[in-house]
Amino acid sequence: MAITCTVTPGTTMETGVELSASNLNELGNPTVVVPNISQTSITLENFTVANLPSNGTVGRLVFVTNGDGGSLPCIAVDNGTNWVRVNLGSAVSATDVEDYIIAE
């Protein structure tokens, strides 16, 4: 994954090379590689529906404490236009038995 970096002119690197426009042009485009993250739990930022940040940044993921029908929690994804709900399913289980509610 490439990450765009901001470099402030006039600072010096540990090598002692002055960061000027000509020196930076010789360096090319810096690329930062982030290794895979594994065996790490992720804590999503918590919001209520009323407190959700403005939508418009595609790909943001948050936990909404009352986003499923006003009282149940869900995960929400910003699709650039709206926050869309990802319903939480059944409890984690070691068996393959699922409970489904079927509307008639």
Account of the 3D structure:
The protein has 104 residues and is mainly β. The protein is built from 1 helix and 4 strands, in the order αββββ. It has one helix at 21-27; strands at residues 46-47, 61-68, 72-78, 83-87. A 4-stranded mixed β-sheet has the order 1-2-3-4, with no helix packed on it. β3 and β4 form a beta hairpin. The longest helix is centred in the first third of the chain and has 7 residues, at 21-27. It is elongated and about 65 Å long. The termini are far apart. The mean pLDDT is 77.
Task: Work out the helix count.
Answer: 1
User: What share of the residues lie within helices?
Assistant: under 10%
Topology order in helix (H) and strand (E) letters: HEEEE
Tell how many strands the DSSP assignment holds.
4
- Determine the structural class based on helices, strands and strand pairing: mainly beta
Q: Strand count, sense and closure of the main sheet?
A: 4 strands, mixed
**What is the alpha-carbon Rg in Å?**
22 Å
Poorly predicted parts: none
| Physical arrangement of strands within the biggest beta sheet | 1-2-3-4
Strand content: 15-25%
**Mean pLDDT, as a whole number?**
77
Shape: elongated
* Span of the ends, CA to CA: 47 Å
